[in-house]
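Here is a protein:
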Amino acid sequence: MQVSLICATTLCGRICPVPLGSALDRARLERARSNTKASLMGAGTLRDGNPEMLGPGRNFIPGRIRAIVTKSGKIPIEGKRLFEKGPPPLVFTGKEVAKGLQERLLHHTCEVIGISNYRTGELDLGEIMDVLDAKGADKVLVEGGGMLNHAAISQGVIDEILLTITPLVLGVKGVQSLADGTRPVGDPFVGFRLVSCRPQPTGEIFLRYIVSDSSKQYKSINPNLRVSPAVVQAPLA
């Protein structure tokens, strides 16, 4: 299984307010979706926006899984296109609240799946990946937000990060960062190795990182992922 995390940040590392990226960044996200079998998104991202997880051309990708993670089960439903258009989503939540959430979603076509807690208190993302893998999603795209990214990196389910740095500075204290949590994700870091760097005419930089072999506290789901040496390209004409 291969799990990719995709994210756009400001120069100061913030991921809000969204969307931050340009049309080029949007196209990169849609291509990443077309190259994977499932998207996994945190409940906060659903609360803050109205995502549909579309592919290239702003179209739904046949057979592709759209999934939400919510430990509390407290997610908005009415007016959210995720529950009104396209393939029925999966909703992963805590086992103790799964029944109640299923009743709330009774009149919406979706599947609610109860998940165990990880040792640090979040939902066990490894268990979620096992469910997705069993459903045929051997390539998964984690789409944030910051809390889900933090859990995914700290629990060791991420193989690579597809990062867009935007030419923007927000400078507001307390706004979500790429990985937002109350503890370090590693001991104290999780290291990544740069494998490509592509400046864009918009001033954005498209980066790809894979988990570094030197991250002793981190076990990648796909440790045999093959990559070429870092590629740095000049800005597009």
The two ends are 36 Å apart (CA to CA).
